[in-house]
Write a structure and sequence with these properties.
alpha/beta; 2 domains; about 30% helix
Length: about 450
């Protein structure tokens, strides 16, 4: 597709004024586990008799590793591997990511490698396969499958992150139960879980998870939870028999830790980079308000959203672009439909893969969003800019927010500098960085 600047579209947008913007910092609860203490924390959890006694010498232990951009996932996974070795057992890692990685064994290894999880770094084998074993049927009549390598092990440790989901609400969202049914279910299992649509997934996950717990050798789960700064703040081991009771309790805690865009409303949201390492849908709609289904809500209230770039860690999977109003040619050129479409076919949610308006560069992406906003005063357009949806401590806001911020209207939000024009290079790419210092404006 030929998309170049200087044509009719560029001419229509060239006089659209982009407001001056200033840097701001959002302040959230900083409770966390220090990185150099994570291994000790994992060992302390697993050393408790109820977990330690489940791992016996010479057992073959499968440890799950998913596709999300979990902070410290390599450290957490390696810590579990090392503990299993300490007990005299034989650990191996199983990619547990449903249809991600292009729904193929090689692609899933590639995803793990991008998170520094390889056989060399972990010190154990990684057994990647899309082959599954059928365990039976849930009480709702859904077929339950699980990764063959994991099933044939002597025990499975479910390592994952526990957090709110980006497309539905329920007592079990993203966590151990989803990892057991969607992640370990590979493409076949993930498709069954999603097959009734997002309106039913909150029922399918727990009912299918019960079958996995009953018929597969699940030893325990060890989910982590992250704070608003994308830092590990909680790690807890849960016996298989206690997962169904404990997970909903931990989900409430996870909800209390998610960050937000404190201004709550804007006209245009600019996202510098999207990717699977930030969220399953490129951006976390719990932050951006760009939900792909009607079964979840939240995030900032916004009229137009543009996305400027795709992370390398996504390996061409630009799922999430369909939730924006405009993207750059840069993103479009990086798309790998063979990586994107297996995801949305499996989940039954096509909205995330739709192609929005494509423009030549960053500047035009922002301009087309501003120009097409309705019902607002364009001279006072409210623009919020974020690096990505996972790291929102530092953001940029248009000058229409400035007086309210320095006068203390928004609790937990402080100005770092004063409004200035955004700088673009000769090709229309943004030069202005979001984070350069932490000095706040004195008022």
């Amino acid at each position: 597709m030929e998309i170049i600047g200087g044509g009719v579209v560029s001419n229509l947008l060239k006089d659209t004024k982009i407001p001056k913007m200033f840097r701001a910092r959002q302040i959230f609860n900083k409770e966390k586990i220090e990185v150099d203490k994570i291994k000790e924390f994992v060992f302390n959890e697993l050393s408790k008799d109820e977990f330690s006694n489940l791992i016996q010498p010479n057992m073959n232990i499968a440890i799950t590793a998913g596709s999300r951009g979990i902070r410290n996932v390599d450290i957490i996974t390696k810590s579990i591997v090392d503990f299993v070795k300490l007990k005299g057992a034989n650990p191996f890692i199983v990619p547990a990511m449903g249809s991600h990685g292009g729904a193929c064994a090689e692609g899933q290894l590639e995803v793990l490698a991008s998170y520094n999880i390889t056989s060399e770094t972990m010190g154990c084998e990684i057994r990647s396969s899309m082959e599954v074993v059928e365990l039976g049927y849930s009480e709702l009549g859904r077929k339950v499958s699980i990764d063959k390598n994991a099933y044939e092990s002597d025990g499975i440790i479910v390592s994952c992150r526990l957090k709110p989901h980006n497309a539905f609400r329920g007592n079990y969202e993203s966590g151990p139960c989803k990892m057991m049914t969607v992640g370990l279910g590979k493409q076949a299992g993930a498709e069954v879980v999603h097959g009734d649509g997002m309106g039913k997934i909150s029922e399918n996950i727990p009912t299918m998870a019960k079958v996995v717990i009953e018929k597969a050798p699940i030893l325990f789960a060890i989910p982590c939870i992250e704070n608003a700064y994308d830092e590990t703040c909680h790690i807890e081991a849960i016996l298989a028999k206690d997962i169904m009771k404990r997970e909903p309790e931990l989900l409430k805690y996870a909800f209390s830790k998610i960050p937000k865009l404190i201004v709550e409303e804007c006209d245009v949201l600019v996202v510098d980079e999207i990717g699977k390492n930030y969220s399953g849908t490129g951006v976390d709609p719990n932050i951006t308000g760009t939900f792909s289904t009607e079964y979840a809500s939240g995030g900032i209230k916004v009229q137009r959203t543009c996305m400027l770039d795709l992370s390398e860690e996504s390996h061409g999977n630009a799922l999430g672009v369909g939730l924006s109003n405009a993207i750059t040619k840069r993103i479009f050129d990086k798309m790998d439909l063979e990586k994107m479409y297996p995801n949305c076919i499996t989940s039954t949610v096509l909205a995330s893969a739709r192609i929005p308006c494509i423009v030549a560069n960053d500047k035009e992406a922002i301009q087309i969003c501003i120009r097409t906003c309705t019902g607002i005063d364009k001279s006072k357009v409210r623009v919020v800019r974020i690096s990505n949806s996972l790291h929102i401590e530092y953001i940029m806001l248009s000058e229409s927010y400035y007086e309210d911020v320095i006068n203390g209207k928004y609790i937990g939000l402080e100005a770092i500098d004063s409004p200035k024009e955004l700088q673009f290079d000769e090709y229309g790419s943004l030069d202005t960085k979001i984070k350069i210092c932490e000095k706040t404006v004195k008022v």
